[in-house]
Structures are given as structure tokens and as C-alpha cells.
Automatic annotation (TrEMBL):
It comes from the Archaea. Its cofactor is FAD. The keyword Flavoprotein applies. This is Dihydrolipoamide dehydrogenase. One of its GO terms (molecular function) is dihydrolipoyl dehydrogenase (NADH) activity. Pfam families: Pyr_redox_2, Pyr_redox_dim. Residues 326-427 form the Pyridine nucleotide-disulphide oxidoreductase dimerisation domain.
């Protein structure tokens, strides 16, 4: 059978591309090797954010209840793991149903590329006009003696019990999120990083997150080298740490489909090289974590799928320019959201949530909004640390990608009271119009 488009991979990138192209009348087949939904649904965003929400409630409920004049307790139950699994299964099935609802076909099985116009799946040959590779990524196993006794970051967010102790190797996104989650669930957690934690984030973000981890009982050990794993212990140059469970969260690597060498593509250790339309050859595209790019997130994968699909459909007028910025979010408490490059900014303004009426009402007042502008007064950077950062950073994503001028944002009427007011007040700070916070007589906040 022949299809207009075959998509290999039913994760975030694959289901979006398959659904768009099928809705537009293309004959589409999406092939998935294991579970629809990919890393995000099965091993990443969904299970980790579910556990983040659980631990946020467990740790903040009493504090917030007291602040609001209530008397309440909340207790941990083992049922939470089955609830997590229910949500994962629902969203995995939803991804497959969305493709089929759009008019596309789906198939479970491992695809093998056998030529530039054919793949094999479940012992049958499928022809295509165009191919989209969306096979995602998998955990990078570090070259450490004894690492076979550890589990990956994917396994860690899918544990069905709380270990008494845990050692996490890796101070990136996954490492810090997992460390805080399990520490808050009751594990004795040590986080080991070969550099400072979160090396790609601004210094103030690293400082806030490190303080929060240590407040929650995580033993953070930075700038250390792992020598080996032995008998349930991680041996480092700074000593030995024992853990009932040892986790490696040392990055991810692209997961390439079988037979990809038959396409003659340019591939490096970070993934497949693509152009701005996610195209490699006339009839081959690659999207999501399998490609070589800076931001490997679920929303970045969706963006790739949109760009590639529009190019296939010859609707390129919708496609944004090459320098489109992708936000990143860290699911710690406090949450962190960042958009743009802080090095592009020449001046910054910060507004704290503690001076925001809505935060004063709900009692979650830690954190701030930071805005950076260039020499032309264009907003090129945004940073949110605090409650609802995952949503607030989306506002700043619109602002940064449209190079909005700071005076336009400063005069924008946002709802009062709302957390998003902190964004406007940060903009007003450039003009000394941020009157919702106190200043001393010398003009300092």
C-alpha cells in the first residue's frame, strides 16, 4: 500500500504531524514501535509533572491552609502511582485516537527503512511519497563502571514505590526535578553534578533552585567526578554515597530508526541535521528530539511538526523566521520559566511576586518576573520564578518573539489582581512606574 506521508514515531512530534497532514486530506500512516505519546507522555512531562503536583500539594498544603485561615491536613497514599499510570495510559491512547480522528492510520510495530521510498513494518512493505522521522530520544547511559546497577531518568519517574534513599547522577533538568520530587516524598536524596547544577540557566535561577533543593533536604554535591558504582554505592572523588536506588540523568541521545543509513543523511551525536523547514532531502523530514537542535522539549517537538507539515502542504507563509525563540520550563518548586538569551539584554528590570496583589491573596509569594531589553528597547529576554511560571512564561514568549518594545508592554492594561500583573510591573520598572512596590528614600527597592 502507498501513502502520501509515512511518519515513523507516534510521540509528541509524530502525532501532531500525522494529525495535521491527515486533516488536510493527505493519506497518512503513523508507525509507533512501543507506546503512542513518546517520551513526554510515557517517561517525561506527564509522569514527572504529575509527581511534581503531588509533592507540591503535600508540602505546601498546610502552609497555604494556615495562611488562608484554614485547618487542614493532606496525606500520602500509594494510590497516587496507579493514578499516574491511568493518566499516562489515557494520554497515550488519546494521541493515537487524535491521528485516527483526523483521518490518518496508525500501526504498532517497529519500522525499518528499506529504501528512499519504502519502509517495512510487521512484515509488510509500505510505500510513501514523503517520510517524516520522529523517533525521539532515549536516556544517554554514562560511561561509568557499574552503571548497569542504576536506573534511567525514564525509569525513575515511573517507580511504583518510594525508595528509602536515592542517589541521582546529573544536575540538569531531569536530575533536579527528580531530586526534589523524591526528597519531598520521603527519600533521602543526594544529587551529584559534574559541574554546577543547571549550567545552561542564568546564575540567579541556579541559586534559587539550589536553595530550594537544599531546603527540601536534598544533598547537592556539585563539581564532582563519579569514579564507579559498587554494591549500591556511588564512589566519587569527594567520597562514597549509598543509595537504595541510583538514577542516571545525564542527558539524552537521538533514537534513530532501523535502516536510516539507506537514506544517506547527515547525522551527528546530537541528531539528524535538518534545514529551517525540518527537511533533509526532497522527500524526507525529521522532527522532535531526533534532530540536532538546542531546545529538545515537547513544545519544541510540536513546533517542528507544525513547520514540517506546513512546508509539505506548501503553506510556508505561516512559518515563523529562523530565530524564533522556544521557552523552557523547570518543574521545581518554585517553578522556573525562561525565554530568550539573557546575554542579548543590556538592561533588566525585576518585579517580585511578594508585591503582587494576587500573590498576596493566595499566599504563594516567592519568586519574581525579570525582563531584559536590548539597546533598541526591544524585549529580548524573560524569566519567571514562582507559582504558575509555566503559564506566565507563555506571555513573555509572545512578547520576546514579537520583539515588543518595553514602553508598549509597560502601558498594557492587564487584569488586576492577577499574577500576570508582575510582567507589566516589571516593564513599568524601566520607567519608575512600578508603584505597587515600596521604595526607600534613596530610590532602592
Amino acid at each position: 500500500m502507498k501513502y502520501d506521508i509515512v511518519v515513523i514515531g507516534g510521540g509528541t512530534a509524530g502525532y501532531v504531524a500525522g494529525s495535521i497532514l491527515a486533516r488536510k486530506g493527505k493519506k497518512v500512516l503513523v508507525i509507533e514501535k512501543e507506546k503512542f505519546g513518546g517520551v513526554c507522555v510515557n517517561f517525561g512531562c506527564v509522569p514527572s509533572i504529575f509527581l511534581f503536583d503531588v509533592t507540591f500539594l503535600l508540602n505546601r498544603f498546610k502552609e497555604i491552609a494556615y495562611y488562608l485561615g484554614l485547618d487542614g491536613e493532606i496525606e500520602y497514599k500509594d494510590l497516587l502511582f496507579s493514578k499516574r499510570n491511568e493518566i499516562i495510559n489515557y494520554l497515550s491512547n488519546a494521541g493515537r485516537r487524535l491521528i485516527e480522528d483526523s483521518g490518518g492510520e496508525t500501526e504498532l510495530g517497529e519500522a525499518e527503512i528499506i529504501s528512499r521510498s519504502e519502509v517495512k513494518v510487521n512484515k509488510r512493505i509500505v510505500e510513501f511519497d514523503k517520510l517524516i522521522i520522529a523517533t525521539g530520544s532515549k536516556p544517554l547511559i554514562p560511561n561509568i563502571d557499574g552503571i548497569e546497577d542504576a536506573i534511567s531518568e525514564d525509569d525513575a519517574v515511573n517507580l511504583n514505590s518510594i525508595p528509602s534513599s536515592m542517589v541521582i547522577i546529573g544536575g540538569g533538568y531531569a536530575g533536579v526535578e527528580i531530586a526534589q520530587i523524591y526528597s519531598r516524598l520521603g527519600s533521602q536524596v543526594t544529587l551529584l553534578s559534574r559541574s554546577e547544577i543547571l549550567p545552561t540557566f542564568p546564575e540567579d535561577v541556579r541559586s534559587v533552585v539550589k536553595d530550594s533543593l537544599e531546603f527540601d533536604g536534598v544533598n547537592v554535591v556539585e563539581n564532582t567526578r563519579i569514579v564507579k558504582l559498587r554494591d549500591g554505592k556511588v564512589i566519587t572523588e569527594k567520597g562514597e554515597i549509598e543509595g537504595n536506588v541510583i538514577v542516571y540523568a545525564t542527558g539524552r541521545r537521538p533514537q534513530l530508526p532501523k535502516g536510516i543509513e539507506k537514506l544517506g543523511l547527515e547525522i551527528n551525536e546530537c541528531g539528524i541535521i535538518v534545514d529551517k523547514y525540518k527537511q533533509i532531502r526532497d522527500n524526507v523530514y525529521a522532527i522532535g528530539d531526533v534532530i540536532d537542535k538546542e531546545r529538545k522539549t515537547a513544545h519544541s517537538a510540536m513546533f517542528d511538526a507544525l513547520v514540517a507539515s506546513l512546508h509539505i502542504l506548501k503553506e510556508t507563509t505561516f512559518i515563523p523566521p529562523d530565530n524564533f525563540k522556544i521557552p523552557v520550563v523547570l518543574y521545581t518548586d518554585p517553578q522556573v520559566g525562561v525565554i530568550g538569551d539573557h546575554k542579548e539584554a543590556k538592561k533588566f528590570s525585576v518585579f517580585p511576586f511578594a508585591a503582587t496583589t494576587r500573590a498576596i491573596i493566595n499566599g504563594i509569594k516567592d519568586g519574581y518576573v525579570k525582563i531584559g531589553i536590548n539597546e533598541r528597547n526591544e524585549i529580548v529576554f524573560g524569566e519567571v520564578i514562582g507559582d504558575k511560571a509555566e503559564d506566565l512564561i507563555n506571555i513573555l514568549t509572545l512578547v520576546v518573539n514579537n520583539r515588543m518594545r518595553i514602553e508598549s508592554l509597560a502601558l498594557m492594561p492587564f487584569v488586576h489582581p492577577s499574577l500576570s500583573e508582575a510582567i507589566v510591573n516589571a516593564a513599568k520598572g524601566f520607567f519608575d512606574l512600578d508603584v505597587d512596590r515600596y521604595k526607600s528614600k534613596d530610590g532602592k527597592t
